[in-house]
Amino acid sequence: MPGDAETLLMKVESVLLSGQGPVVFLAPANGGGDDRVLPIFIDHGQALNIQLALEKQLSPRPMTHDLFSAVLNELGAIVHSVVIEELAQSTFYASLYVQIEKGNDASVKRFDARPSDCIALAVRVGAPISVTRRLLEQAAIKRSDVGPLPDDPPQVSTDADDVDLGVER
Q1: What are the C-alpha distances in Å from 131 to residues 71, 77, 155?
Q2: How far apart are CA 149 and CA 52, in angstroms?
């Protein structure tokens, strides 16, 4: 369950383009001298979604994560937290925790989800992102191993032409 001693609160440090494709870097939220980052390679669409959310930009039409957030809100549910839990065969696994209220009863339900979807949704709604300590030990790298970033590192473009509006041109 999120928030226990087995997880560490993280923040999205950056979303960059690398030679291997878009990558989101998660770093410990409180810093605390921890110089590790967790790189998670994602597809271009998810990178764009996360970058738009970080920049608090709205697309002309709702994107998938905007729609899902609106549906949750309308149903009286909120994103409680996300936890990135495991790495197996080069694939990260995550859980989305949603708080659901029915009458006077409230519960938190867990849903299996892709980390990129979880991150995009969490950034949009301000929900905490955590990583299991075991995963951090397994997959994190030292920031210094990333090497110095150029003064102007390539970032995921959020130009309007890059946004899939679901309209044929």
Answers
A1: 26, 23, 24
A2: 21
* pLDDT tens figures, 20-53: 889 999 999 987 677 899 999 999 989 988 998 8
The answer to whether 28 touches 22, Cβ cutoff 8 Å, is no
Q: Which residues contact 13 (CB under 8 A, 6 or more apart)?
A: 25, 26, 27, 37
Residues 83, 2 contacting (CB under 8 angstroms): yes
User: How far apart are the two ends of the chain, measured CA to CA in Å?
Assistant: 45
Phi and psi (nearest 5°) for 136? -60, -40
Domain segments of the chain as ranges: 7-160
Q: Is the pTM of this model over 0.85?
A: no
Sheet of strand 141-142: strand arrangement: 105-113, 91-102, 77-88, 129-132, 7-18, 21-28, 36-41, 141-142
Nearest-angstrom CA–CA distance, 101 and 65: 21
CATH number, domain 7-160: 3.10.690.10
